[in-house]
């Protein structure tokens, strides 16, 4: 157990690409936490996906030892995920710390995630150490950025540290500032144990490995522990610290950050935000802030090959062992067969799960367009709908509510007009606007989540030449005039194409979908009507004219083998198509029609 | 037994099994840009040895075909008439000697308008050739040029008159529609000219771009546009109308005949009857097995001169493949297939849409349906379906 006054628990928060992982790498080197031989870039991002995308998905922790003023300090660096999908996970990582380094790119300045993360850190009561990074870049404006950061945090510009995580310049000063300004944890070793789980992973050989921060009390190896939210008792098979790999210790004392191996089969029993206590002497109250993971975005995942359904189910079950936020339930689509309606924290989370399913489990998937979860109200009955095809037709309910978010956009002021225009066109309500400096402005908009899950971010980037940044937090449900638009092929609704959109955009959406499908659906033996409808009202229509020629002109003796092979090829192509009523729809048509970035003209 | 009831053909061992005999002549004066047949220009010097090789192959092959009665002989190519009437006579005499050829067998020879005159056609008729098939392709000079045919419309007319003068009572004209630049009006004029001449038989083929041809390459690189399938369908429908009005029966996708003049030899293919093929690249079929000779004429000649067959490959059809062939070949013809061979749910949509009719207990494609025969065949070939009409298994 470490002397509590020598412990500093901190995290680094930053906008994406502002240098968080590079700074972490430098801190690891400076404290010799990793030998030169084992060092590699983005050391704490262990998943391939994290390293490829340059983002942090899972939290990580590492123990750094650093001697300062003759004292051997233990610094626990908690690496937090860096995306709006994982805001709750970020908040739990912050809750495990006493201090946060707020890192801002000297060339980019304060961005939306800088603001969001600063506010999260402030709410968590952390001491914030502002630092400007990348000061050695040619386009860096350290003074200007330091001014912005100072203004935001409420310190003098000279108190904003200046570093280059890349070269290591100023990093040692930063380390000292952490020791100097971040308070050591408090908490008594003899109190009943309360330890906060800020992440958990599943190891097929060892079971669940929970990342935790002991708030009070002591956690000895082999103790009988209790998870307070899930009410599960288990044995602490191993406790340890990250140095930098998992290293067993006899016990974890107050203020310490480490891990706990419990023989549980999946992470759903050791969820982020839960409190670990001792079964023999439980704490009277769990730590505050626990929340059940709640999927915000839903999409139907279907195997491209119908026979892969069991494999997809197994893969989702395997992923769920280590991803407590992933929800799924079986569903069947007339068009796509058997699959799963999956719930995700956000679009990035969805992308990650899809990519892992395809990459790690070698599955080919068709994903329906993502949608939010709606609430339908009729009298005193309220129910949720997370599959558009289950949305009742207008007239059979009192109202529909959809989730809203409070979005923060930071943009150079010259692009303010286009940004406001975009937000307005997405049914946004301006909540607040504030100039960070004469050149940069932050805008807060209340927006339907459903309006930003498609291409909002891309649109924002293209209207601001890439300069604007976005962050958002969930706001709650508000009544909304949305309707279900169905797409019919030959009078047969295709459930996979149903979508819930705002009434004013229904025609636009329906028309775009119908036009698109007209291009994608091959000519058949019959005219195929493609229609978009709200209830029984047709709002758009196109026709794929029947083909008139599909025959081999010449077919005689010598050629029959070859002609048969041509037909067999045609048959194989047909077999890969999905049948909707009498219409054959190629797989590619589904994939292309459902592709997020090409859905309709939403500009 | 009349030809229409022959169904998928008699099996091996049937003492009176009717079979066709095909002889391939791979020589042409020039190659046409669209043609992907096993044909060569500039190999005329091999002709003599090639005919000898055919005789040798006939001798080697005939013993295995004594159970079959040859009801039709077809000399195709290439351009068989490049061999000249004497060689063609000698060939037919030899075939009749070694195979069991029916006395009234249909004996067709393909002719290029530029390779025949009244005298040579007379000789062919005397030699026992009963049917002349002429590669006219079009009566439009521009279309003939687009097809890279060496003859003009006049030589086609001249050759046709020569055939009549020589006494031929069974003439087929081959026409091709849908070449680049051909309009529906031009095609109608070709049809009108053809019917005015009044042949017993007309084959009208939609131009098909084969990848391994000069035309195929031109289309691939964008020098020539690919034929427009809708325009071809319009031309096909024009042919159906014009030829029906002129008294021709549409008895196969691309074939029309005056009643009683349907091509016995080609019907044999569509009815899955056995056939024996002689010559370079020629295919044979019997009892679910298909085999074929080497394609290069030199290799073929070489084998024959050593007293050997030049087997190039073979396949034994699986039950599935046989079923597919039996369905798609017979659906090409006006005979169609027995209704009992198709699950009613699979046929229903086509009957509803007027692509297929039920006639005398058989399912027959309509004119419009015939031009969609591929996909319809694939749709009805499955035997087992679920309650919604979706094929299973």
Report a brief summary of the structure.
The complex is a heterodimer of chains A (603) and B (393). Chain A is of the alpha+beta class.
Q: Give the C-alpha Rg of chain B.
A: 21 Å
Distance between the ends of chain B = 37 Å
The third-level CATH topology of the largest domain in chain A is: Rossmann fold
Strand order of the largest sheet of chain B: 9-10-8-7-6-5-4-1-11
Sum up the overall morphology of chain B in one term: globular
Q: Name the largest protein-protein interface in this structure.
A: A-B, 25 and 51 residues
CATH class of the largest domain in chain A: Alpha Beta
Q: From the alpha-carbon coordinates, what is the Rg of chain A to the nearest angstrom?
A: 27 Å
- Determine the structural class of chain A based on helices, strands and strand pairing: alpha+beta
Could you give me the name of the CATH homologous superfamily of the largest domain in chain A? P-loop containing nucleotide triphosphate hydrolases
For the biggest sheet of chain B, the summary is: 9 strands, mixed
CATH architecture of the largest domain in chain A: 3-Layer(aba) Sandwich
Work out the helix count of chain A: 14
